[in-house]
Amino acid sequence: MRWKSLILGCALAFVPAFAASAKEPEVAAQHIVHAHPALWIAKDHDTTIYLFGTVHLLKPEIQWFEGNVRKAFDKSQDVVLEVAEEETGTQGKLMQRALDIDGPTITSRLPEASRARYLAALESHGLAPILFERVKPWFAAITLSVLPLRNHGYDPASGADHRIKLMAKEAGKTLIGLETSDQQIGFFESLPDPLQIQMLDETLNELPQLGDTIGNMIAAWSAGEPEKLAALMNDTLEVNPELEQRLLTDRNARWADWITARMEKPGTVFMAVGAGHLAGASSVQALLAQRGIDTTLVKRIE
Description:
- By secondary structure, this protein is α/β, with parallel strands linked by helices.
- The chain has helices at about 5-10, 65-75, 90-100, 105-110, 110-125, 135-150, 160-170, 180-190, 195-205, 210-220, 225-235, 240-260, 285-290; strands at about 35, 40-45, 45-55, 60-65, 80-85, 175-180, 265-275, 295.
- It has 13 helices and eight strands.
């Protein structure tokens, strides 16, 4: 699984804190593209849980909050997100924990062959290299993954998580968070330093193809093709197993346990997590099957 894949669909919901605006940008009607992302359902006699895979950054012209997704959302009393807390203050918290004033500089820790590429990548986005010499490698990796996407037109304010949270508040639905922003930052912050450096080095390797790769993944997501999305996300080199375990597998297991417990209570729930968590062999659905809970792709909601 590529690191860019984790940012797109498995990485963390605090990513939009980098630059999410207050409301989604308006788009001219002639530029609108209608998407039909996949939706799953787990159901028993008195409980229905919809599972929807989100993308944390999307282009404003991609319209996805309609059809089955909108109907499932409207039917639900509870809306479950990776993080449901207010985004206010997250950016400051993120920056505070990203700094590493007393540690060695990033360029001194990167492989020699990657140092010039790191400095050039920062400068290409108007970032002063001297300011990024004293941040932790995980923060530099996320920054250099998100900013190029912004240049390709992907906007956190148009991301599915952000939109669902706004609509849930507007509709007066109960918002439930599976994690907190503190926990999510901690997933990265606690990574061993060599793994953080590997993550940053992999990011630098992926930058030239970032636009094409993300475009293909968004196309698969928009077309409701989870198998194709899983194949794209697992193409080429795999992320270090420890990173994949922390950011994907362990979290999927905890969320499968949450769903299993929630199935014991009546009601209808709309659960939206990164699309990468609902694709592949270790997906939430696969782990639910191990717990005796079947999920099916929704074809049509009346």
